[in-house]
Write a structure and sequence with these properties.
Helices cover 28% and strands 24% of the residues. It contains nine helices and 13 strands. The strands form three sheets. It has a nine-stranded mixed sheet. A two-stranded antiparallel ribbon has the order 9-12. The longest helix has 22 residues.
Length: 311
């Protein structure tokens, strides 16, 4: 991979860091991260992020339409708000079509809500980092475990400050050309970030919020799914009034939280709940486990025979 940047972390030419996210360019997580990066005076900071919320769009990309990139004033940076997904923003930002050189590191975040377990698949934040990985640019996704009623916007600054040693350590390895290129990192910061227990290397688990569907009579009814995969309930109650036209024209459904699946062990979610800043190396392949591979190795040769005998 060609990379025209020259870099240092703490002296000499500054490394170039590009920030994206899925919550949108104006959200407190991204702004806090950018402020911490800029104020450290250790980085040249670029921002290429969605112009509106794109939570849970996974690795969706824009294919048929042109993207708009609007310059945005963010102190100490060169920044653009893009009419695309997180993966679009990363792809555009590292292409040299928007910025003159490829960044040394892409950081996607800081997301409002953790990204652990199976939620990694849904996450636009993780996709922003994964897209850089696809293109051989080192990357890290960062998420803060926002809990309604306990968290406040100042926690994003604390989360960014707590993540700064990881960012500098990554760039130090990149400079030495010893940083691995066969993975990217997913970092989750605990709710009580002030009293975090340190960094812990973890692996992706199988935790997930179980979702269902509820029929509603208007788009405003039924609450809003937050980027944290929890519900923001609507104060208005279900009402049959005014619903007849909607019922005759079409049916409306909204997601609702049904429960959760959590596993024990040294996985990302469990370690995060214990108060650790979790660091999980991720790839992009999705092979099944060994038992499943063995099963289908025995099963597949008999498929044609079974089909023929049924005719």
């Amino acid at each position: 991979m060609e990379n025209n940047s020259t870099m240092s972390c703490g002296g000499g030419d500054l490394p170039t860091v590009m920030v994206t996210n899925d919550d949108g360019i104006d959200t407190p997580g991204l702004r806090a991260l950018v402020r911490v990066l800029v104020s450290s005076n250790r980085f040249h900071v670029l921002v290429c992020a969605p112009d509106s919320e794109k939570s849970a769009v996974s690795h969706c990309i824009t294919w048929r339409n042109a993207l708009s990139a609007k310059p945005v004033e963010i102190s100490g940076t060169v920044a653009f708000a893009v009419s695309g997904t997180p993966a679009d923003c990363t792809s555009l930002g590292i292409s040299k079509a928007l910025f003159p050189s490829i960044p040394d590191l892409v950081i996607s975040g800081i997301n409002m809500g953790s990204n652990c377990g199976y939620h990694i698949i849904y996450s636009g934040t993780v996709a922003g980092a994964r897209e850089a990985f696809f293109n051989e640019v080192p990357s890290v996704s960062m998420s803060y475990d926002w809990v309604e009623g306990r968290s406040n916007v100042n926690d994003f600054t604390l989360a960014a400050e707590a993540s700064l040693p990881i960012i500098c350590a990554i760039l130090a390895e990149i400079k030495k050309k010893t940083y691995p290129q066969n993975c990217f990192l997913n970092v989750d910061i605990p709710t009580d970030v002030v009293n975090h227990k340190g960094y812990r290397l973890t692996k992706q688990g199988k935790s997930i919020v179980k979702m269902g569907w509820k029929q509603v009579t208007s788009d405003a009814e039924g609450g809003k799914i937050l980027s944290t995969m929890t519900m923001e309930t609507n104060s208005s109650s279900y009402s049959e009034s005014g619903s007849s036209s909607a019922k005759h024209e079409h049916l409306l459904f909204k997601r609702e939280v049904k429960g959760s699946q959590v596993e024990d062990g040294d996985t990302d979610y469990c370690s995060l709940q214990e108060g650790y800043i979790t660091v999980s190396p991720l790839g992009a392949l999705s092979p099944a486990d060994t038992d499943s591979q063995s099963y289908f190795k025995q099963w597949l040769p008999g498929v044609a025979e079974c089909f023929s005998s049924a005719l």
